[in-house]
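ingest -> validate -> predict -> emit
validate: passed (alphabet ok, no gaps, 265 aa)
predict: started
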Amino acid sequence: MAGMRPVVDLAISTFAYTAWDPLMNQVAKNRFLFGGQFSVPVVVFLHHFHRSHAAAQHTDRPHAMMMSMPGLTLLAPGTPAEAKGMTKAAIRSDDPVVIFSDQSNWGLRGDVPDDPDLVLPIGPASVSTLNGHVTLVSILSRSQATAAATQLADEGVVVELIEMTTLAPLDEDAIFESVERTGRLVIVDTAHQTGSAAGETAALVAQNRFDALRAPIMRVCPPDIHIPYATDVERLVFPTADHIKDAVRRTLSYGRPRQEGGRRA
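emit:
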């Protein structure tokens, strides 16, 4: 594949299951299996459909399953500028990259630099605010998390919003540094709660920054059910700004004193 940089659009994320063997068993592993003698510079686009009245076979969010497979770089740009800059970075990468497009962001407008060479780095998360009351980690949930943070600001609650624009490799340092400042963590993820990226993030913080926590970690995820077709029922499943605000309020209701440096009293 030397010199080739194919870009593949698999459309709805659920359709990736039909390409699961070549994607997970070949693309993700071949560089390792052949001792790094060649690269696999392929870019795959997958579109997350949710809140879309598209029923179970069109609304899976398989990013958590892909995060468990070494060898794949996973991106989740959430703004037009990020989409441009991170797509360019993906095309220039020598590793296989999967880019998740969140359908709920498709109507989002924003400034995009004219620079044709705009390339955003793979890895760093997008951090919106410092010195907040609570850390809110958003995984493919930007519109809902942003709305919740904006509405909570009207209540006097400052949210440190971290948008995970790269899922693999995960920007652990950005999360740890924020939790050290706030002592409280809420994670919102569009994937089912069991085995989710939210669960992995919570485990990383519990393992590495437990002494900084002043309250239990809260996860806001869809329950472990298939997505219903009926619109009125579907909207009960996915995280909303109200769900996120409730989780933030719950974690703020806990008060555990800390010694200087984040150590537990």
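The longest strand covers residues 7-12.
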